[in-house]
């Protein structure tokens, strides 16, 4: 494969987040409402939109800016083709549950397509394709096709994909969609606030007091008394003995937004084999911006994350030819032990505190599914997907194996980071460089910004004490244990950690 000579954008920036919405104020005092939703991504906003329409008073809280998390960094494919999943679900959970999983996604696609009609959100109907490049994955594709047949999914094995990529098998799923997630959700937010819903940005919820009238407590100490709480904050902002930190696996992946020299034929593509490659386009100033994504790895274990961007860039240069490269960004995804999201009461003995998390890379449909299901749970209406997604389910195979190896890995990380030999000192760093360094004999994280100023933090994650690693692609400190991420000066960007990394003044 030829290497690209194109200049990578210096800093990460998501194309979607160029679309500005209304800003919202901070919560400044104690208050009361029917429902508090924590997390302003697709799940939280869709649930807020649905619940205010049912006549509830709803407050939506977001720790930063709405849609600034995973929703603003997605590839925004609206599809039920979630990689190779249906054959695995049939094997592990049985045909009925596999069918329900598909139907939930299909309902979500129809829901989005219906709302998108009035939303000017660049939605288009597209076929989706998974392609294999090895014999091993060709066989898996055939098994996946058999699963489609059993589940009644419309799709077929086709001859190839319209790119210069030699394939050993291609499986299509017809009539899927893609859209601009921020335009779509700005439309829902507008309807939500027009109907009396309230949004507070820069307001971090940190705890909930349980009870018939639960109280959400913010970092600044405000209290919101309510009847129901929904945690839609990607990683749940509370755990309540649900042990989510031990049953969610964080993974980072990368997205490039580029103009290409070859004609892009439409359609959405995803590789079955590793390393993962994904393609789609979006309208861009009368032309097409191609989103090239993949290179997923466990958070905090990417070593030099710029290498992941570079690998995608080389792939794009080879397959499509790059004429302009204005955007690059990364996203964090959470996977559950059986690959089915956790949506429902946070623990089996709660009936007014709900959670939605673990959508893998497929948050557009899974997040919408979550909002639709949570609305029914609050209305006490039966919903066919309630059991499938219940966070209290326990499917011993193969999750128990993953659970043990994952927690062994966390235990290993706890020790490994502390024992690691640290050869660098802050004075070794060039401008715009970060690394684990030694300061007065202690392990520290240092970043020298582009003006030459040093920012030093304690690298110990404030969640449960693992050691964070420098992610140069995004200029962040990432934790390998449960995926918390911090800015170069320690601010929490992504939980479960709630407290910033400690800033270190001595140098
Ligand atoms: Fe749990 Fe860092 S996220 S220890």
Automatic annotation (TrEMBL):
Pfam families in the cross-refs: DAO (PF01266), Rieske (PF00355)
GO molecular function annotations of the record: 2 iron, 2 sulfur cluster binding; metal ion binding; monooxygenase activity; oxidoreductase activity, acting on paired donors, with incorporation or reduction of molecular oxygen
Rieske domain segment(s): 421-507
Signal peptide: none
Keywords carried by this UniProt record: 2Fe-2S, Disulfide bond, Iron, Iron-sulfur, Metal-binding
SUPFAM superfamilies, alphabetized: FAD/NAD(P)-binding domain, ISP domain
Any one GO CC term of the record: cytoplasm
The organism's place on the tree of life at top rank: Bacteria
Protein name stated in the entry: (2Fe-2S)-binding protein
């Amino acid at each position: 494969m030829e290497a690209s000579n194109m200049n990578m954008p210096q800093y990460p920036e998501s194309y979607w987040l160029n679309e500005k919405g209304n800003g919202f104020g901070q919560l400044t005092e104690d208050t009361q409402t029917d429902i508090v939703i924590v997390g302003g991504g697709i799940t939280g906003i869709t649930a807020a939109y649905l619940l205010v329409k049912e006549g509830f008073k709803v407050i939506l809280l977001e720790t930063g800016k709405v849609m600034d998390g995973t929703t603003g960094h997605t590839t925004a494919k609206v599809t039920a083709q979630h990689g190779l999943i249906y054959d695995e679900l049939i094997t592990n959970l049985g045909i009925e549950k596999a069918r329900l999983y598909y139907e939930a996604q299909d309902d979500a696609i129809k829901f989005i397509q219906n709302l998108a009609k009035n939303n000017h959100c660049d939605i288009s109907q597209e076929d989706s394709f998974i392609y294999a490049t090895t014999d091993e994955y060709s066989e898996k594709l055939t098994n996946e096709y058999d699963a489609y047949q059993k589940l009644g999914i419309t799709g077929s094995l086709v001859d190839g994909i319209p790119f210069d990529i030699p394939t050993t098998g291609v499986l299509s799923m017809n009539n899927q969609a893609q859209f601009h997630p921020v335009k779509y959700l700005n439309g829902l937010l507008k309807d939500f606030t027009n109907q009396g819903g309230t949004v507070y940005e820069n307001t971090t919820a940190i705890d909930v007091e349980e009870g018939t009238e639960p109280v959400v407590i913010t970092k600044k100490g405000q209290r919101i008394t309510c009847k129901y709480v929904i945690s839609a904050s990607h990683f749940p902002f509370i755990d309540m003995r649900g042990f989510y930190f031990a049953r969610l696996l964080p993974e980072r992946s990368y997205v490039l937004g580029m103009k290409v020299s070859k004609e892009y034929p439409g359609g959405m593509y995803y590789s079955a084999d590793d390393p993962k490659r994904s393609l789609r386009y979006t309208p861009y100033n009368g032309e097409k911006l191609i989103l090239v994504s993949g290179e997923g790895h466990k958070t905090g274990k990417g070593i030099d994350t710029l290498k992941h961007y570079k690998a995608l860039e080389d792939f794009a240069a080879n397959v499509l030819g790059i004429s302009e490269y204005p955007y690059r960004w990364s996203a964090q995804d959470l996977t559950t032990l059986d690959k089915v999201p956790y949506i429902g009461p946070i623990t089996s003995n709660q009936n007014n505190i709900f959670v939605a998390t673990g959508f893998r890379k497929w948050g557009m449909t899974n997040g919408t599914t979550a909002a639709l299901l949570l609305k029914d749970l609050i209305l006490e209406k039966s919903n066919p997907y309630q059991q499938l997604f219940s966070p209290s389910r326990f499917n011993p195979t193969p999750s128990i194996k993953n659970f043990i190896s994952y927690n062994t890995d966390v235990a290993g990380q706890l020790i490994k980071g502390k024992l690691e030999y640290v050869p660098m000192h802050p004075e070794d760093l060039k401008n715009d460089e970060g690394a684990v360094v030694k300061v007065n004999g202690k392990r520290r994280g240092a970043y020298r910004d582009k003006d030459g100023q040093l920012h030093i933090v304690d690298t110990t994650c404030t969640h449960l004490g693992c050691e964070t690693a420098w992610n140069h692609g995004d200029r962040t400190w990432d934790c390998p244990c449960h995926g918390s991420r911090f800015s170069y000066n320690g601010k929490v960007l992504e939980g479960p950690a709630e407290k910033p990394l400690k800033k270190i003044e001595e140098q």
